[in-house]
Design brief:
- By secondary structure, the chain is an alpha/beta fold.
- The protein folds into two domains: 173 residues, no CATH class; 78 residues.
- Helices cover 25% and strands 29% of the residues.
- Strands 3, 4, 5, 6, 7, 8, 9, 10 and 11 form a nine-stranded mixed sheet that branches. It has a two-stranded antiparallel sheet with strand order 1-2.
- Strand 4 and strand 5 form a beta hairpin.
- Helix 1 packs across helix 2.
- The radius of gyration is 20 Å and the shape is globular.
- The protein starts with a helix and ends with a strand.
Length: 268
């Protein structure tokens, strides 16, 4: 499954292209994935940390950048006040890049008026705008703080030579039967599916298909037939239990051996 996870990560488009919100998007170098044999990644890690391992393995495979630093803690005395995700060095230009990595799943809530505020986590516990501001206003400036400068100097890096970028990938899910909600200036290629409420999943056309509830490690992966799919009735009981616990599951819906859909059932 790790190879599929790596492919899913690599194929996920960036949430924006070029520079937006004062943040330049990192452009991942082209890779030949045919003979790629990734190292195992523990499923016990949080998905964000799994994606860091995926990023590292893919980056090592390319010939464009060298990995200089990864997950470097920035401390004030003995207290960790932040972390540097990646420092990369371009092999030809020798330019140093500080890359903050984010991989997210957001539903689009059209009840919110401002497009870039519409992206929220399926359980409404995180927001794109808040994360974007944290990268721009806290994580980038950290490297130029007294403690950040000292940390970089200890690794023989001059903070003045660093260019900041974000590798911000996301899968977006539109409201069920409403795929035209405005998300300008974000990338519509990131739309992977839709979201709906439990009462909508409980009824209608959903009854005639089969379902699989992927683990969070599998959220990155495109739906496929090589898992055990269950009936709507069986799945309904599982989904109901999760929603009662205020947990919005992702579902893969199998319409045929070649046709699948991916969506969230929300509890709120």
């Amino acid at each position: 499954m790790i190879k599929e996870q790596c492919l899913g990560f690599h194929e996920t488009p960036p949430l924006w292209t070029g520079e937006q919100f004062g943040i330049e998007q990192f452009v991942f170098p082209e890779l030949n994935m045919k003979r790629f044999l990734p190292k195992p990644i523990s499923k016990k890690l949080r998905l964000g940390h799994q994606m860091e391992h995926v990023f590292t393995q893919l980056l090592i495979r390319n010939s464009t950048y060298d990995l200089i630093l990864h997950n470097q803690a920035v401390k004030e005395e003995k207290r960790t006040i932040g972390e540097i995700d990646f420092i990369l060095k371009h092999r030809e230009t020798e330019k140093l890049l500080h890359v903050e990595l984010t991989y997210k799943f957001y539903i689009i809530d059209p009840s919110i008026s401002e497009p870039i505020h519409r992206l929220i986590g399926p359980n409404r516990r995180d927001m794109f705008f808040t994360k974007m501001e944290k990268i721009r206003d806290k994580q980038f400036p950290l490297l130029h703080s007294e403690n950040g400068i000292r940390t970089l100097s200890e690794n023989h890096i001059n903070h003045k030579e660093i260019v900041h970028q974000a590798c911000y990938k996301a899968q977006l899910f539109m409201p069920y039967n409403d795929a035209h909600v405005d998300i300008t200036p974000l990338n519509r290629d990131c739309i992977y599916g839709y979201w709906l409420k439990f009462e909508d999943f409980e009824n209608g056309d959903f009854k005639k298909y089969k379902y699989y509830i992927p683990s969070k490690s599998e959220w990155v992966v495109n739906p496929h037939k090589n898992v055990r799919y269950s009936s709507h009735f069986e799945t309904l009981m599982d989904v109901n239990l999760r929603t009662l616990n205020e947990n919005a599951p992702m579902l893969w819906m199998k319409k045929s051996d070649t046709e699948f859909e991916k969506f969230f059932v929300v509890w709120w």
